[in-house]
DNA sequence: TTATTTATTCGTCAACTGACGACAAACGAA
DNA sequence: TTCGTTTGTCGTCAGTTGACGAATAAATAA
């Protein structure tokens, strides 16, 4: 119901059946091999995970962790994460000193890594009409950034006020917003007001509407009827159709 | 950094200095009164909270809990909540059998209770131009529903996929969206497409943009430059200006 | 005053949870 | 084979955390 109860599947057992490939169940282990052994497994790797090189395992953990924390929140338990990776909980601490370090790494890779520099180039490619540029940009943005994983991680981090990283995102988005405004204004031959905050707020009219569509889809699980492309097209057209009016309203105050 | 570490102020002590009024420090207690007593307080209410009637205390707890869970997430600890209420943790369980029950109650009061029935009436008051109606509605909506408390609680619940209550909210919002579309179309004498999902998506153009503004403001802590009223006015005008165009685009597909 | 109800607390249990020391087994070079 | 290096696990500690039995004292009735 609330977070702490997250998945709660097979918590009791350690790792079993999580590994698809190379599951060498019980490597040679002739039962009476060495000293003390009753029934419980001894340290080492009895039915342990497949051996992996350092960097590979680290990458795998990061992948699984991204998915895991996106679904279960940043408060997801390291034991469950380890289980999903098919390794012991202890092993996580060979790669990340603390859970917080793991979270930071996940955040940086997944959240900050999702923004593409090409967008700025494409948005300013004046050989294309603005409608086409905006359409292309927001389709890509919706598909590669505003994903379920990205949105959930970002919201969890924002709600927790977890300052995972300095405000790179805010800065990037601001750039995008200003670029959009500048380009549309140029195509329309419209004079823009000075105040940058006001400018951005106008661009948010489009950017926010599309972001909120993603939130509806991935967080509230609604608005699933129309295709993403249809929605993007609609929002872009509405924005462009009302552009002059919007600028006029905002300037004349 | 991440949720479990929430506030972390004076966890060790129980309740001390939280109660402003009537702090009857150490009521008569002649030290050697009855049996077992070394130094620690005995049960009862040594420097306990002010005595309150059942319903009053219950209401107070709900108030504090709303604020508390909105800030700290649904995983906030009952001990901290109790501390904020100025009572012992045990006392919470006199009013709510489990933490989950408390959460449900908070959710119902705060989330579902924030929607006003008058909105439907006002939105359909054809003696007023649509621009005025929308402006008034969204100003109120932003101020009384899309508050920090409401948004944070709603997002925490949505992310946790906590089915606190059946989808009343979705139903209410759908009604609002359809009402808006119907009214604007009537004023403009525009023919609307059949598909209700498509209709709603069009209304989301405005509703989503404003909701996202609230999220920026209360969750991401940005977009604080302009006043709420300015923003509402802008969004409403943009929506109305592009209305015919939007309907045309959406119908012709 | 005395008895009864009711608001409130203490103390504690069991399950959870991040972290880590110590040890075992696989790999590979000598 | 032998031995060092690296990958991996077990077991456990200390601090949380929801829940609750039992005791206490303030308010109210008798």
Oligomer: homodimer
Element-level helix/strand string of chain A: HHHHHHHHHHH
Radius of gyration of chain A: 25 Å
By DSSP (H or I, 4+ residues per run), the number of helices of chain A equals 11
- Quick check: average pLDDT of chain A? 84
Q: Quick one: overall form of chain A?
A: elongated
Helix content of chain A: 55-70%
Ends apart, CA distance between termini of chain A: 48 Å
In short:
Chain A has 2 domains: 50-110, Arc Repressor Mutant, subunit A (Orthogonal Bundle); 112-251. Helix content of chain A is 58%, strand content 0%. Chain A is built from 11 helices and no strands.
Provide the descriptors you would attach to this structure in a database record.
DNA-binding, disordered N terminus, 2 domains, homodimer, Arc Repressor Mutant, subunit A, 58% helix, mainly alpha, 253 residues
